[in-house]
Design goal:
Elements: H1 7-20, E1 24-26, H2 50-53, E2 63-71, E3 73-74, E4 77-78, E5 92-101, H3 106-120, E6 128-133, H4 137-147, E7 154-157, E8 161-163, E9 168-179, E10 199-206, E11 210-212, E12 218-220, E13 225-231, H5 232-239, H6 249-262, H7 270-287, H8 296-314, H9 326-333, H10 339-342, H11 344-374, E14 380-381, H12 383-393, H13 397-406, E15 410-411, H14 413-419, H15 421-431, E16 448-449, E17 456-466, E18 471-472, E19 474-476, E20 480-485, E21 487-488, E22 502-506, E23 509-519, E24 522-531, E25 533-535, E26 539-544, H16 546-570, E27 576-581, E28 586-591, H17 598-614, E29 619-624, H18 625-631, E30 644-650, E31 655-658, E32 673-682, E33 685-692, H19 693-714, H20 721-756, E34 759-761, E35 764-771, H21 775-788, E36 792-800, E37 803-810, H22 820-831, E38 834-837, E39 841-847, H23 853-865
Parallel strand pairs: 1-2, 6-7, 14-15, 16-21, 35-36
Antiparallel strand pairs: 2-5, 3-4, 5-13, 6-9, 8-9, 9-10, 9-11, 10-13, 11-12, 17-18, 17-20, 17-26, 19-25, 20-24, 22-23, 22-26, 23-24, 27-28, 28-33, 29-30, 30-31, 32-33, 34-35, 36-37, 37-39, 38-39
Length: 867
């Protein structure tokens, strides 16, 4: 039996082991991938290294290792329905991994994995089994001949092959299993019982060594890589001698807290495990900026939270409980993942609000579900019920399926899907992110960017490409294409800042740069040859559009001041969610639930303009990343940072951020700052648009011009304009009120006249007439007429905006023989109107056959005479 090892110690042992083997240690990347829009969440340790592993990005190191938080609860990587019911599945788990980018390969990877398993984990080598791909003789030979695994315990598996897609990098993989003993059900790999838990797969070694061609041919990669994944929770279970991941130390603390909340001796169940798992994934998602919503990642989070709440309901927990688990989670994982400590209050508040929102509908929805189940005559729950639970009570369908599975029934998903057609469109957009399929270039050299200060420089052309990125020898006059140079003063689009424009010139040749983007370690200058021609090796002079760059820098420095002001006005919980820095405006997305109040907008503008007026220096310095974080520098949303980062201080410490963009040298160069719009763009996310410099001055001049025009029109000074407009509004209200009173008096007279005009048919007072006005007039007159006629049938029609509206009423005493809804239906059909109602009163609208209206009104008499 291996010695007991805490999960935190196991994590650190792995990291230290590979650090000693010259691997650079990387922190866990965000759960929201920054380099792969096809993924909903980070699903494996290799995600942050994907571009380096598949060869589209030059890696900054040859060896790397990490402990990566992974999320599998949405899109094609979804373990949600299994969580709580198996020993191994989680929505969130930690994956330890080591990676090679063209450095070492199979022999080293296998040897190092074996040494760690035997010398550091102290697992029994006689209980270890290995799987390899059936074609991977090299890996098989290493395991048998060099490691010494008995041949019968090295099993060939056809499924042991990894690939990113139908084409591109791929290769075999080798898995390491551990026999947990006969007390656990299951057979060894390759047997008919291999799906049991006895033989636990805990480490997967992937060998990307081929490039699959469109015709299926596997061509060897020049620099094959290594990508391994060691499941932390699974390995901790082995080290702590438990056969269920939920029995390890970090889960036991959460399960114990759940039991304390219940306040009774309730045996640990699937519900305990579901809640313990879901508090982890929910907390880390909120910490990474995801909030519950009805689309995308926010909807996945909402499903997870509501599934946990349903299991709390099942355990008999009354009142809010889920958010209170944030504290024990921070206690057991906060030391390793300090973001939990930093965001603890934000996490707890977000979970509590979602819990409060769902608690009432949970009780009502569960009551409905239990009633429907009790009345079932089959083993299938109607899709209509599942849809009602979703649409009315906010039950995700997997929550309903979860309940159904527990009691041995199924849900009619086909019917549910039919009823969910519109919602399915939204769900598809949430789980199928657009993928950029454009080929990427790889470069052997890095561009030297010198454009923070000089806006012109001399460069050598290293490569030329067509607009489709095909390599070229020449670009001639009229050609659209791409220039790659050894050094540049053009800023490549990054961090929300757009790329520079300008020109490259040489003798009589001119290349107009229309955009600058980044790819691998180079900048691509996209544009058109407007004169002459260019070839590789030419020396050219680059000149950035200075006026445009100046506008961009004003907006970028203004963005930093706005970010700091938002934190001051709204609180430190404000987090950046995106940005755009363009020459004509800046756009800033941030976490906040309510629209900004006018006073808050004024305070933001005041703070930013105050720091502009101070004209303080904008300072930048290069620091190690950890030192910058210690200083309190804010790392921006979605950005990847290297070991050395650029720290930008604005406003004498008012703003301190990591930023590689271009900025003004002093805040006064911004000129002025003006917010022009705000809107909500997602649940809990607001967007501000603002202008600076020339554009802000133009806006102030436009506002001044408008004020002068209004002052001239109303013949008051600008200082008295507000009072004058308010007086006009009050006058307008009084006039509208007087107009309504006059109309009401007129309606009263018309109602009296209509009642007097009633015909007697079968002893019933019958009114059928067309009137003028709007919907309010129609109903007001109807109420007046029927109040004057004790026994009546009244049919009124009105044409408004080209459409016919109808209302029909029948005295209660007469409804046994005449029903308003039936009478109205007959009349409405004649004019193309639709509607309905009760026996005493019914309404219809939308009729477009105006010519048929007189005859339709007259037909009511015949209907009454011949009921």
């Amino acid at each position: 039996m291996p010695p007991y090892t805490k999960t935190t110690d196991l994590r650190q042992t792995f990291i230290d082991y590979f650090r000693d083997l010259d691997h650079k240690i990387y922190p866990s990347a965000p759960l929201i991938p920054t380099n792969d829009p096809s993924l909903l969440f980070t699903v494996a340790g290799m995600v942050q290294f994907k571009d380096a592993l598949i060869g589209v990005e030059t890696p900054e190191v040859a060896r790397a290792a990490s402990c990566q938080l992974c999320m599998r609860a949405g899109g094609k990587h979804n373990d949600l329905e299994n969580v709580g019911y198996t020993a191994r599945h989680h929505t969130l788990f930690e994956m330890l991994g080591n990676f090679s980018f063209g450095d070492y390969f199979k022999e080293e990877a296998i040897n190092w994995a074996w040494k760690f398993v035997i010398d550091y984990l102290h697992l029994d080598p006689e209980r270890i089994w290995i799987t390899v791909h059936t074609s991977d003789d090299e890996a098989r030979e290493i395991w048998i001949k060099k490691i010494g695994i008995r041949e019968k315990r090295v099993v060939g598996h056809e499924a042991n092959f990894w690939e990113m897609g139908e084409t591109g990098p791929c290769g075999p993989n080798s898995e390491i299993f551990y026999d947990q003993g006969p007390t656990v059900e299951g057979g060894p790999p390759g047997s008919k019982d291999e799906d049991g838990d006895r033989f636990l797969e805990f480490w997967n070694l992937v060998f990307p060594q081929f490039d699959r061609q469109p015709d299926g041919e596997l061509q060897p990669l020049a620099n094959p890589g290594i990508d391994t994944g060691l499941g932390l929770e699974r390995t901790a279970a082995l080290m702590q001698n438990v056969t269920n991941n939920y029995g390890i130390d970090i889960f036991k603390q959460l399960v114990s807290q759940i039991s304390r909340i219940i306040g009774a001796q309730v045996a640990e169940s699937a519900s305990h495990r579901v809640i313990a798992d879901h508090i982890r994934s929910s907390a880390f998602l909120v910490a990474d900026g995801v909030l519950p919503s009805n689309e995308g990642r926010g909807y996945v989070l909402r499903r997870i939270i509501r599934r946990a709440l349903r299991h709390g309901y099942k355990l008999g927990i009354e009142g809010a409980f889920f958010s209170s688990l944030t504290k024990p989670l921070v206690e057991c994982m906060g030391e390793t993942y300090t973001i939990l400590v930093e965001k603890q209050q934000i996490i707890q508040t977000a979970l509590q609000e979602e819990e409060e929102k769902f608690s009432e509908t949970l009780r009502n929805g569960m009551a409905l579900l239990q009633r429907e189940v009790q009345s079932l005559t089959t083993s299938t729950l109607s899709g209509d019920v599942a849809f009602k639970l979703y649409d009315t009570y906010g039950f995700p369908v997997d929550l309903t399926e979860d309940f159904a599975r527990e009691i041995g029934i199924t849900v009619d998903n086909q019917r549910f899907e039919e009823l969910m057609e519109l919602q399915r469109t939204r769900a598809r957009s949430a789980s199928a992110f657009d993928t950029n399929t454009a080929d990427k270039l790889r470069f052997d050299s890095s561009v030297e960017f010198i454009g923070y200060d000089p806006l012109g420089c001399s460069s050598v052309i290293l490569a030329l490409y067509s607009k489709d990125l095909d390599a070229l020898e020449f670009l001639n006059e009229g050609d659209f294409g791409v220039l790659v140079v050894d050094k540049t003063c053009f800023y490549g689009e990054a961090g929300g800042q757009v790329g520079d424009t300008g020109e490259f010139v040489m003798d009589s040749a001119v290349f107009r740069v229309e955009d600058t983007i980044r790819m691998d370690r180079q900048f691509l200058h996209k544009g058109k040859v407007v004169q002459g021609g260019f070839k590789c090796g030419d020396t050219v002079n680059g000149q950035v559009d200075a006026r445009r760059r100046q506008d961009i820098t004003r907006n970028h420095t203004g963005t930093h001041l706005l970010h700091a002001a938002l934190k001051m006005v709204l609180g430190d919980e404000v987090q950046q969610r995106g940005s755009l820095v363009a020459p004509d405006r800046l756009r800033f997305d941030f976490s906040h639930k309510q629209p900004l109040k006018p006073a808050e907008i004024e305070e933001l503008e005041r703070l930013v303009n105050e720091h502009i007026a101070l004209n303080s220096l904008v300072n930048s310095q290069l620091l190690p990343f950890d030192d910058a974080k210690e200083l309190g520098a804010v790392a921006l949303f979605g950005e990847k940072y290297g070991d050395i980062v650029r720290v930008l201080e604005t406003g004498n410490g008012f703003s301190l951020e990591l930023c590689g963009g271009t900025h003004t040298s002093r805040t006064g160069e911004i000129g002025c700052f003006r917010i022009i719009a705000q809107e909500g763009i997602a649940a809990g996310v607001r967007r501000i648009e603002a202008v600076t410099g020339r554009k802000a001055a133009e806006r102030f001049m436009e506002d001044g011009r408008l004020l002068r025009q209004l002052s001239d029109t109303l013949q008051v000074s600008s200082q008295d304009l507000g009072a004058r407009v308010q007086a006009l509004i009050e006058d307008n209200k009084r006039l509208q009120k007087a107009s309504k009173q006059i109309a009401k008096q007129q309606d009263t007279g018309l109602g009296r006249d209509l009642a007097k005009s009633a015909k007697k048919i079968n002893g019933i007072a019958v009114v059928a007439a067309e009137i003028q006005g709007d919907s309010n007039t129609l109903m007001s007159l109807y109420d007046d007429v029927v109040s004057r006629l004790p026994e009546h049938i009244v049919l009124l029609a009105m044409i408004h905006d080209g459409k016919i509206q109808l209302v029909c009423g029948v005295s209660k005493k007469l409804t046994a023989e005449y029903q308003a809804n039936k009478l109205l239906q007959s009349v409405a059909e004649q004019v193309g109107a639709r509607g309905g109602g009760r026996a005493e009163m019914a309404r219809a609208g939308g009729g477009d056959n105006i010519a048929a209206l007189p005859q339709a009104l007259a037909s009511i008499e015949k209907l009454i005479k011949n009921p």
